[in-house]
Amino acid sequence: MTQHTPSDLAFTHAPIGLVILENRIIKSANALFAEIFGGAPQSYIDAPLEALYPSREDYERIGARGLEAMRTTGRYADERVMRRRDGTLFWCRVRGQSLTPDAPFKRGVWSFADLSQERPLVALTTREREVAILTCRGLTSKEIGRELGLSYRTIEVYRARLQEKFRARKLAELVAKLSGMPL
After folding, report:
1. Could you tell me where in the chain the CATH 1.10.10.10 domains are found?
2. Which helix (H) or strand (E) element contains residue 70?
3. pTM of this structure
4. What is the pLDDT along the chain (183 residues), one digit of tens a residue?
5. Contact 108, 21 (CB under 8 A)
């Protein structure tokens, strides 16, 4: 019979999805991570994290943003749309801690929380998702425009579309709906 250390048991049975990543490749996954994304924990060993993003563009863009933040703090956190193995998309809270500060993606611990119950998915374009995420971070239209290389008026158009899709009358109501806060 195999003896499990308390830390092995804590990782395996944590009440949040956990993975150990090496260069964005899954080296270990716990039970809740596998439940969230589908499959068994063992089926994720040596799987590229890219397969769980809606698109390669999302994988590269979010990865670049995360790497920049981790070079400064060693940590990264966001809420984003992810893809389950069956292809369905869902909102996910993601947090990471690098274990190798000089090379942030070399090895790290990442958590994944399914936000489906609090934040149902509304069909959004990639650009709408970007604007929604940056809006939730409290950025103004001008700040979002600078970050995405668009005019603030274009960002206002995207925000208006988001308000329509989420049936929000004001920006504050949109932010509340995007963040899953009770209204």
Report:
1. 126-179
2. helix 56-73
3. 0.71
4. 567 788 889 999 999 999 999 999 999 999 999 999 999 999 999 999 999 999 999 999 999 999 999 999 999 999 888 999 999 988 899 999 999 989 999 999 999 999 988 776 777 888 998 999 899 889 999 999 999 999 999 999 999 999 998 888 999 988 887 776 544
5. yes
